[in-house]
Automatic annotation (TrEMBL), chain A:
It comes from candidate division WOR-3 bacterium. The lineage of its organism: Bacteria, Bacteria division WOR-3. This is Indolepyruvate oxidoreductase subunit IorA. Its EC number is 1.2.7.8. [4Fe-4S] cluster 1 binds at C528, C531, C534, C566. Residues 518-540, 547-572 form the 4Fe-4S ferredoxin-type domain. GO terms for molecular function: 4 iron, 4 sulfur cluster binding; indolepyruvate ferredoxin oxidoreductase activity; metal ion binding; thiamine pyrophosphate binding. It holds the Pfam family TPP_enzyme_C.
Length: 572, 192
C-alpha cells in the first residue's frame, strides 16, 4: 500500500474520496479550511464553497436525499450557524450517507471561543466520531458513511486543531463504487410537519437505541490492556499525549464518543484500580462516566480551558517535568495586518472620529488593536451590523457618537445581508462599511460570491455589492478606495451627518493576491521631522530608527498610503 | 528525534518542516509533524514540531525534550529555548526581525547582544548560521530555509541524496536548482 504524510484535514478529504463521496460543501474556517481545498483536487466529487455553513449543510442534506454520499465541513462555530438543519437532519435521516465534519479549536489558535462540539451529538442524538491521528481521520470518515447509511442518520466527525493540522502517515486505498443518485419523494420522512415530526422523533429514538448497541461492539472503541493500576479513558489527540505520558497504563480509547459505550466503560472500570478520563476542554466523557456512578479523576485536576499537552498531563499526575523555564520578558509577536493591506487605510481613516464601531470577524478584526483601536466588538460572523443596530436603538439620541459597523466582504455574504435588511426595515442610523478586499483573506484567500469564481475553478456570476445593498433598501451606497485615505475619511464623515442607514464599500484587493501597486517608498531623512504620524498607519513596513521614520524596503509594496499621511511630505 | 522549528510568518518555516518530515517518511520511519495555520500566521511567530522514530504518539514535543531546535530568527530562538533537551543542539540564524509592537514603539526590543548572551548562558551546544545573509548573497532571500536545511543536515544521519530527492519532490520545478544550491551552501557553513 502507498503511504503518504497527510494532515488530518487532507486525510479527511482522502477518506471522503475513497468512500465514494460525490458532494461536498463547506464555508472556510480554521482549522477545517484545507479539507475542501484538498478534496477539490480529486476527480468525481462536486465541491463548493457555500455562502455559509447553514447553506452548506442544507445542500448536503439535499445531496444525501438525492442518494449520494455527501459531506458538509465547517469549523466548530460554523456548526452553530448550521445547528438548525442539523437537528432536522437527525429526524429526517439520510439516503446517501451524510457526514458532517466539525473542526474544534481548543486553545483558540484562530477562533473566538473553544466550544466543545461533542455536545452537539448529545443534543441532536447523532453519533460522534473523534479520530486521534490522520490514519484514523481517514478510516473514521469511511466508517462514518457506513454508520450513516446503516442507521439512517447523519454522523458528526469531530477534529481538533492538533488533529486537523498535524501530519502523520496514512495508507492510501482506492475509491469505492457507490450507488448512482436517485431521488424519491418520502413525505412522512422528509416533511417535518408536527404530525410527521412526532413520528420521526420516536423513530430517531429507535435508531439511537440500535446505535447504543452498536457503540458497545464497534472496533472504533477499543481497550488496550496494560498495567491494571491505572485505567485511562480518552479520545482524540488526548489519547496520543496520554500514551506518551503513561506508556504502561491500560487504555480505553474511544473513537465513537457518542452514543456512549456504557457497558464497555463498566467492564473496563471493573478491571482497573484507578480510573481517569483525559480529554480536552469540557468533561464530555467524564460526565457520562460519572453518570454510571463510577469514581474517576478528570476535570477535578485537568484544566478545563485550552489545549492539553503531555507536560500538562504529567504535571497534573505528579510526574516530573522539565525544569527549564521559558524566558518571559520577550516582546510578543502577535499576528498583524500585512504591509500595504487595504484595511490599514480604512482604519486610519476611522481614527479620531466620535463613533461606536461594531466589529466583525476576519483579518480586519486586527484593527481592534493599537495603533488603530478601531473596533469595539468581535462577537460572531455578521454581528457588527446587528450590534450597531441594537446600540443605536438603545442609545437613541442620548449619545452623540455615530454608530458604525465594519464587516468583510466574505462575512457580509455569509451573514451580513440579513443584518443590513434589519437596519433598513427597522430604520437605525447605522453606517455599514464593507471592507471589500475581494477575497476571504483570513482563512487563506478562498473565493466567495463576490469574486466570480467557484472552488472548482469555474467562472461564475460575481455578485455586485452595490446593487445588492441598494436592493436591500439602502439608498446611500458609496464606493471608496481605502488607499485614498482623505477621500475615504471625507466620505465617511459626510455619511455620518445624513442620519440614515448607509453603506460604504471600501474596495481594494488584498495585498497578498494583487500585483504590487508600486516600487518601495523611501523616507527622505532630511525632511522627516520624526513626528511619528506615519506609525499610526500600523504598516509593518514602517519603522523608526534614530529618530527618523524608516521604510523596510523588502516589506514595502509601494501602496503609497504613508506618502499621503506624512504631514511633511517626507515619504516619496 | 524531536526537532522543533521556529521563526516568523513568511520565512519558509513550513516548507522547511514539510521537507524534513517527508524525508523521514521516505527513510521508512514513523513521522508526525504539527503546526498551527490561520490567524497565528499573519506575521506572527510560527512553530513546527517534527518527530520521527520507530513509533510516534504525540504530535507535540514536550518542553525540555527537543534534540534540535532550528530557529530562523534570534528572538524566536530565545522564545523556545526551554524546549531544548539538556544535551540538545540549537541552530539559529542571528537575524532579528522586530515584532510589530516594537516597530511601532509600543514595546521595548531586547538587544541582539543580550539575546545571544542568554543563549550562551543557557546552552552548551548552539550554533549560529547566517542563513538569511547567505541566501541574500545567493540572490534570493527566500531560500533562507534551504540554507538552514543544509546546516541542519550536518547533525542528522540522512544521506545527501535523500535531501535532493525530497527537495525535488516538494519544491516547484523552477526553484529546485536554487534550493539545492542553497542547501549545499548551508552545509558548507557547518563543518562536520
Ligand atoms: C461561523 C464562522 N464561520 C467561519 C469562521 C472563520 N472565519 C473567520 S473570518 C472569516 C472570513 C473572513 O473574510 P472576510 O470577511 O472577507 O475578511 P478578510 O479576512 O478578507 O479581511 C472566516 C471564514 C468563523 N469565525 N465563524
Amino acid at each position: 500500500m502507498n503511504r503518504a504524510l497527510l494532515t488530518g484535514d487532507e486525510a479527511v478529504a482522502r477518506g471522503a474520496w475513497e468512500a465514494g463521496c460525490r458532494f461536498a460543501a463547506a464555508y472556510p474556517g480554521t482549522p477545517s479550511t484545507e479539507i475542501l481545498e484538498s478534496l477539490a483536487t480529486y476527480p468525481d466529487v462536486y465541491c463548493e464553497w457555500s455562502v455559509n455553513e447553514k447553506v452548506a449543510l442544507e445542500a448536503a442534506i439535499g445531496a444525501s436525499l438525492a442518494g449520494v454520499r455527501s459531506l458538509a465541513v465547517m469549523k466548530h462555530v460554523g456548526l452553530n450557524v448550521a445547528a438548525d438543519p442539523l437537528f432536522s437532519a437527525a429526524y429526517i435521516g439520510v439516503r446517501g450517507g451524510l457526514v458532517i465534519v466539525t473542526a474544534d479549536d481548543p486553545g483558540m489558535h484562530s477562533s473566538q471561543n473553544e466550544q466543545d462540539n461533542r455536545f452537539y451529538g448529545l443534543m441532536a442524538k447523532i453519533p460522534v466520531l473523534c479520530p486521534a491521528d490522520s490514519q484514523e481521520a481517514k478510516d473514521f470518515i469511511k466508517s462514518a458513511y457506513i454508520i450513516s447509511e446503516q442507521f439512517d442518520i447523519p454522523v458528526l466527525l469531530r477534529l481538533t486543531t492538533r488533529i486537523a493540522h498535524s501530519a502523520s502517515v496514512v495508507g492510501l486505498e482506492d475509491r469505492a463504487e457507490t450507488a448512482p443518485p436517485n431521488y424519491e419523494k418520502q413525505l412522512q420522512k422528509t416533511v417535518l410537519l408536527p404530525a410527521f415530526a412526532r413520528l420521526r422523533h420516536r423513530e430517531l429514538i429507535l435508531r439511537f437505541d440500535r446505535l447504543q448497541a452498536f457503540t458497545e461492539k464497534t472496533p472504533l472503541n477499543r481497550i488496550e490492556w496494560g498495567n491494571p493500576e491505572l485505567g485511562i479513558i480518552c479520545d482524540g489527540v488526548a489519547y496520543q499525549y496520554a500514551r506518551e505520558v503513561f506508556p504502561d497504563a491500560s487504555f480505553l480509547k474511544l473513537g465513537m464518543v457518542y452514543p456512549f459505550p456504557a457497558g464497555l466503560v463498566r467492564q473496563f472500570a471493573e478491571r482497573v484500580r484507578r480510573l481517569a478520563v483525559i480529554e480536552e476542554v469540557d468533561p464530555f466523557i467524564e460526565l457520562q462516566v460519572r453518570a454510571l456512578g463510577l469514581t474517576v479523576t478528570g476535570k477535578d485536576t485537568l484544566p478545563r480551558t485550552g489545549e492539553l499537552t503531555p507536560a500538562i498531563i504529567r504535571a497534573v499526575f505528579g510526574q516530573q517535568i522539565s525544569e527549564h523555564k521559558a524566558e518571559i520578558d520577550l516582546p510578543n509577536r502577535p499576528p498583524a495586518l500585512c504591509p500595504g493591506c487595504p484595511h490599514l487605510g480604512l482604519f486610519y481613516a476611522l481614527q479620531r472620529q466620535n463613533i461606536i464601531i461594531g466589529g466583525d470577524i476576519g483579518c480586519y478584526t486586527l484593527g481592534a488593536l493599537p495603533p488603530h483601536n478601531g473596533l469595539d466588538t468581535c462577537i460572531d460572523m455578521g454581528a457588527s451590523i446587528t450590534f450597531a443596530h441594537g446600540v443605536d436603538k438603545a442609545l437613541a439620541n442620548q449619545d452623540p457618537r455615530s454608530r458604525i459597523a465594519v464587516i468583510g466582504d466574505s462575512t457580509f455574504f455569509h451573514s451580513g445581508i440579513t443584518g443590513l435588511l434589519n437596519v433598513v426595515y427597522n430604520q437605525s442610523n447605522v453606517i455599514t462599511i464593507i471592507a471589500d478586499n475581494r477575497t476571504t483573506g483570513m482563512t487563506g484567500h478562498q473565493d466567495h460570491p463576490g469574486t466570480g469564481r467557484t472552488l472548482m475553478g469555474k467562472e461564475t456570476v460575481a455578485i455586485d455589492l452595490e446593487q445588492l445593498c441598494r436592493a436591500c433598501g439602502i439608498t446611500e451606497v458609496v464606493r471608496v478606495d481605502p488607499y485614498l485615505i482623505k477621500e475615504t475619511r471625507n466620505t465617511i464623515r459626510r455619511l455620518l451627518n445624513i442620519k440614515k442607514p448607509a453603506v460604504v464599500i471600501s474596495q481594494r484587493s488584498c495585498a497578498l493576491i494583487s500585483a504590487r501597486p508600486g516600487a518601495p517608498k523611501k523616507v527622505d531623512a532630511e525632511i522627516c521631522s520624526g513626528c511619528r504620524s506615519c506609525l499610526a498607519l500600523g504598516c509593518p513596513a514602517l519603522s523608526f530608527e534614530q529618530e527618523k521614520a524608516l521604510i523596510i524596503s523588502t516589506a514595502c509594496i509601494g501602496c503609497g498610503m504613508c506618502v499621503e499621511i506624512c504631514p511633511k511630505g517626507a515619504i516619496l | 528525534m524531536n526537532l522543533l522549528v521556529c521563526g516568523v510568518g513568511g520565512q519558509g518555516v513550513l516548507l522547511f518542516s514539510d521537507i524534513l518530515a517527508q524525508l523521514a517518511l521516505t527513510a521508512g520511519l514513523d513521522v508526525k509533524k504539527s503546526e498551527v495555520h490561520g490567524m497565528a500566521q499573519r506575521g506572527g511567530s510560527v512553530t513546527s514540531h517534527i518527530r520521527w522514530g520507530e513509533k510516534i504518539h504525540s504530535p507535540l514535543i514536550e518542553e525540555g525534550t527537543a534534540d534540535i531546535i532550528v530557529a530562523f530568527e534570534l528572538l524566536e530562538a530565545v522564545r523556545y529555548l526551554h524546549f531544548l533537551a539538556p544535551a540538545g543542539w540549537l541552530i539559529y540564524d542571528p537575524l532579528t526581525i522586530a515584532p510589530l509592537p516594537v516597530q511601532l514603539g509600543l514595546v521595548e526590543q531586547i538587544a541582539s547582544e543580550e539575546l545571544e548572551k542568554r543563549i550562551q548562558n543557557r546552552l552548551k551546544k548552539s550554533l549560529a548560521v547566517r542563513a538569511f545573509d547567505t541566501a541574500r548573497t545567493l540572490g534570493n532571500p527566500r531560500v533562507q530555509n534551504t540554507v538552514m536545511l543544509g546546516a541542519v543536515s550536518r547533525l542528522l544521519e540522512f544521506p545527501d541524496d535523500l535531501y535532493y530527492q525530497t527537495i525535488k519532490q516538494l519544491v516547484k520545478p523552477q526553484f529546485v536548482e536554487a534550493n539545492i544550491l542553497a542547501f549545499r551552501r548551508g552545509q558548507e557553513l557547518v563543518s562536520k
